[in-house]
Amino acid sequence: MLEALRRSGVIDASYNECAPLDTAKSHRLIALGRHGTPEIVVKLDRPDVLWAAARFLQTYGASPVVPRLRYVDPDFGFFAYEYVPGADPRESTDRIDKAQALQTIVRDLLSRYVAADAADACWVDELYPPDNDTGHLGRTWQGFISMYLYHRHMAVRPHLPSDAEALVRDLAVSPERRGDTPLALLHGDCGAHNFVFRGGALTGVIDPRPVAGEPIWDLAMVFVSWPDALTLDAIAPAAEALERAGRWGPPPRERQRLLTEEVLIALYAWIGVVAKHIPKELPVYIAAWARWTDLLGRA
Fold this sequence. Notes:
Layout: H1 2-7, E1 17-21, E2 28-34, E3 37-44, H2 47-59, E4 69-72, E5 78-82, H3 98-108, E6 122-123, H4 141-150, H5 153-156, H6 164-172, E7 184-186, E8 195-198, E9 201-205, E10 211-213, H7 215-224, H8 232-244, H9 255-277, H10 282-298
Antiparallel strand pairs: 1-2, 2-3, 3-5, 4-5, 6-10, 7-10, 8-9
């Protein structure tokens, strides 16, 4: 791997430091650097996952928050990208304005989303290899959301009211979940754990697991992914910016209701994650669920 990076000019003999990053994740991330400063990240994972992630990084390489992809192994055994210094919102010691951060990610990433070239909603790695005719998976966007929620019901049930599961099941299958534009190439794991902030500003969005879907999904998941400012005021300006960019098209009179529904779907999904991995944050999210269901009733 190092020899391939040397041959391609990504590193040279001065790179003499190598260290693992984020060992809690299932894949492997390795930082290469010199003089105590990491400069290159190497990611190793399954070929299908790496193929899809490289496609995302290549597609949105002009975005100021997407790390520059430096090398992709021809067999998709690994790829390398430029290291982005900073911390996620939970670790940052700087004050982060969530509403501003959401608008930044819409401006610098979500508004740039392009068609995924997938016939159906899917994890993009399901399309690997690209010549195996798996582009027709027979899955609607509503079906994808339902599948995503299905794997969280058991974790969520002990923590939310008994009618919560039925509510998100009904919201997920609504025809209004699907717009009239092609499915976009989404980040797919767009959340605080994959954000890099420095000096209170968003500087990087890393580690995609791309999805062919609706851009509002990524915005809603960003919004719920850390517990600060889980309010309509925090997300509404970003949703309006996404609409102005042509990446979300609700009828004007239905905008607030549909945004509320998207947030409730994302909240439910994220509570499933929090219940397993960050249980100390559960009270904040349970309170947010109550506020947003009340907001839905008034929308």
